[in-house]
TrEMBL record:
One of its GO terms (molecular function) is lyase activity. Residues 1-128 form the N-acetyltransferase domain. Gene3D superfamilies: 3.40.630.30, HUPs. NCBIfam families: cit_ly_ligase, cyt_tran_rel. Keywords: ATP-binding, Ligase, Lyase, Nucleotide-binding. It comes from Rodentibacter genomosp. 1. It is an enzyme of class 6 (ligase). This is [Citrate [pro-3S]-lyase] ligase. It catalyses: holo-[citrate lyase ACP] + acetate + ATP = acetyl-[citrate lyase ACP] + AMP + diphosphate. It comes from the Bacteria. Its EC number is 6.2.1.22. InterPro entries: Acyl_CoA_acyltransferase, Citrate_lyase_ligase, Citrate_lyase_ligase_C, Cyt_trans-like, GNAT_dom, Rossmann-like_a/b/a_fold. Pfam families: Citrate_ly_lig. CDD domains: Citrate_lyase_ligase.
Length: 353
């Protein structure tokens, strides 16, 4: 057993970051811009010989110097990162790795969810984590055998907050299908907290009995599957995130009998527009129809949650009232919303990248 030390690396420590970047490059990896913890293992000369990082409930940027491979160093790095995650309250962990490294991580207690052949594998540390998630989705509705006269569709929404545009899209899907699965992005990375977004969606779709609301968990548009939704990234990274996310959605769709997925056209958000483009290309490959719906407009402009947040920031309550259902507006002018309103007003950027 070696006596190498492992320590946290500050993101301002340029000397260590340069060594880490060199180490990662030897493994064909670039340092992920979305990290909230970074560590390194040092040899006797205080040279970095192994590294690893975290973001949310994911492990990232794992590498060992070539002249130290086979010494079990990556096991020690992962053990260190898992301990950090446990201290943060994260017991369900995810990681990305190259396809040729998947067996190694399987031996460390991670199981494959999906992979992009010859590129990356997405894994989790719960043997039946994804299977159990799908079973919970199934238990939320009595699944009928899919037949020609049974139309089942899906939507995925963040609703930050729930607008008349969201409501219009859900109503259209509900009118055109027998059953609609509405997956709400449950990652708590938006200005409107998860519990508030969920409450506003429930109120806004209460009149639609054939719509079932699900949490997306860590499997649909989350910091694990799709961090680029929440953080700025280059398009190549965004597209690989999207492909992982859509592969997972396709497996969920197969389990629930979902034949089509609805989405609004996207004139504002770069990342959502890219998502829509890739979705229109990829989902038909899985036998899922893509239905693109023109956004509901107000005064000639497509309604968006970004516009609502901007109107709140500008204290333009007359405009807000025109963009959201009454249920959302009633919440926004309540005392309960005061901390959120304050946060929006103090935020430098309220538009979605």
């Amino acid at each position: 057993m070696n006596n190498y030390s492992i320590g946290k690396i500050a993101f301002s420590d340029q000397h260590s970051l340069t060594q880490i970047d060199h180490l990662l490059a030897q493994e064909g990896i670039q340092r992920d811009p979305n990290l909230d913890y970074l560590c390194a293992m040092f040899d006797e000369d205080f040279k970095i010989i192994a590294t690893g990082a975290c973001f949310g409930n994911t492990l990232r940027c794992l590498a060992v110097a070539k002249n130290h491979q086979g010494e079990g160093l990556i096991n020690q790095i992962i053990t260190h990162l898992i301990n950090i995650q446990m201290e943060r309250g994260h017991s369900h962990l995810f990681l990305y790795t190259k396809c040729e490294s998947a067996k190694f991580f399987h031996d460390l207690g991670f199981w494959e969810i999906v992979q992009i052949p010859e590129q990356i594998v997405f894994m989790e540390n719960k043997r039946k984590g994804f299977e159990n998630y799908v079973e919970r989705l199934k238990s939320a509705v009595e699944i009928s055998p899919v037949s020609d006269n049974k139309k089942i569709s899906a939507l995925v929404m963040n609703c930050n907050p729930f607008t008349l545009g969201h409501q219009y899209l859900v109503e259209k899907a509900a009118t055109e299908n027998d059953l609609v699965h509405l997956f709400m992005v449950s990652e708590d990375s938006s200005l409107f907290p998860y519990e508030v977004r969920k409450k506003l969606i429930q109120a806004g779709i209460a009149h639609l009995p054939n719509v079932i609301l699900h949490d997306s968990g860590s499997y649909i548009i989350s910091q694990a599957t799709f961090p680029s939704y929440f953080q700025k990234n280059d398009d190549a990274v965004i597209k690989s995130n999207i492909e992982i996310d859509l592969q997972i959605f396709a497996r969920i769709a197969q389990a629930l009998g979902i034949q089509r997925r609805y989405m609004g056209n996207e004139p504002f958000s770069h990342v959502t527009n890219l998502y829509n483009q890739v979705m229109q290309q990829k989902l038909p490959e899985y036998g899922i129809e893509c239905v693109v719906v023109e956004r509901k407009e107000k005064n000639g402009t497509a309604i968006s949650a970004s516009e609502v947040r901007q109107a709140i920031k500008d204290e333009s309550w007359h405009q807000v009232k025109q963009l959201v259902p009454q249920t959302t507006f009633d919440f926004l002018i309540s005392d309960e919303a005061a901390p959120i309103i304050k946060k929006i007003r103090q935020s430098d950027e309220v538009k979605h990248y």
